[in-house]
């Protein structure tokens, strides 16, 4: 994991906002976001008046039960779910579609099967009119960073799930996004691989300095990674509670046995337990 | 021997016997031997049966007579003429039908309006066997080459159209979302993602269409012509040259076998990431 420094410097140098103004303005502002889907059985309220801000460089995790609208919120911030009700500003400008300063990593890697690892990562830069040479240079930097040098010319179907997801992360980073959205990126991995990936992500995060919104339904993962955890209610999704995670960094998975960590986890679990009971009673009385 | 026909046997062989490893190795060698003997054995039996007097030798000529007929066919120069005529029909028909099939498959697969407009029509026309069009093709085109081409194109088109259509529709939405997030403009989505995503389906459709183009060739040449492998078979039948008929059939089988194999190799290279 070296050779990435050049990219990082580039990313910082090319950022239009100065550090001062960035401090004043949140990287992401979501206010009163509601999303209603038309289905054949009528309308489903997927997200109900969700509001939150994310500060520049902050790492926010969103947890909540399955179907509560986590992916929908993330997709909307990404510009994949338009139109929407409410306001979303990224770096101060409203979201109206996919944009170059927002990158996304999905639960499935969704690598282009016909492209080698290098070409997959170079795809974004190529789409932004970089020359093949430039794009490959960016890709090779990132490949070194994710430790897959040996697989630069391999096709995705020859990689393990964890390696594929690392490539997907690198591919999203190749456009040097100011905001990185991650939708349960490690959800499909086994526990061991996931732990390694979490440590990798923390390391990576220190270098790229992007703002990260990370969706998961794993409380441990959320507390380990985040500066702040947003806990969502069962559908229609609202934000129940924000929990600030003031654990020292750099962190690694060994943090999970410390008392400060455990008390944070208990706070979160209490909120989730109460919400679970409420949702259960509600569905019972209907 | 990469076709699926020998796979079930191999599986059966592997799972039988107590000392599986040495046993299966010996049995596999035996299998290869039997495979190599298959054709000579069949031809030998046929020769014996024909010459035994148990069957009518005029209707069931032995392989030696068939071989003589084929040799004569080749020596007279007629074989080359017939082969060229047939191959020309198959390849042009295949290419025109394949190109149209891919084009319309992309249109209907990618644009719902096009699908609403064309799919019902195509689905009604598709199941009609091309041979049923022979009478009307003779009315429309007479004995011209255009009529033959029409039949082959017709047969190839629908297979390729349908598989392309399905391929385009089945392109992983996730790939498209990923591509969008990476800044791929929507107007480049077709070339960047959709075509490549559909490619495996298109290739399968084209491969099926190879054998279909040979089926329709039969219909095309029976619709009246002056040269061609199937035409030669028909003429030989009228002259009671059973050896020539069988030689023609063997030639047809061999050619379409080779075409299929060539295409299989080509297909493997086309979907390069597999
Ligand atoms: N395209 C769609 N059309 C109709 N309903 C949808 C659509 N996408 C999501 N929904 C509905 O919106 C709600 C929220 O879905 P979403 O995928 O955002 O949940 P999630 O929190 O990401 O769940 P999970 O943890 O299982 O990924 C669900 O009730 C779902 O059925
Ligand atoms: Mg989800």
UniProtKB/TrEMBL annotation, chain A:
PROSITE patterns: ABC_TRANSPORTER_1 (PS00211), ABC_TRANSPORTER_2 (PS50893)
Domain ABC transporter: 28-259
Entry annotated with the keyword rRNA-binding: no
Keywords associated with the record: ATP-binding, Nucleotide-binding, Transport
Keyword Magnesium annotated: no
GO molecular function, one term: ATP binding
Domain of life from the UniProt record: Bacteria
One GO process term, biological-process aspect: quaternary ammonium group transport
Matching Pfam families: ABC_tran
Similarity field: Belongs to the ABC transporter superfamily.
Function description: Involved in beta-(1-->2)glucan export. Transmembrane domains (TMD) form a pore in the inner membrane and the ATP-binding domain (NBD) is responsible for energy generation.
Protein name as catalogued: Sulfonate ABC transporter ATP-binding protein
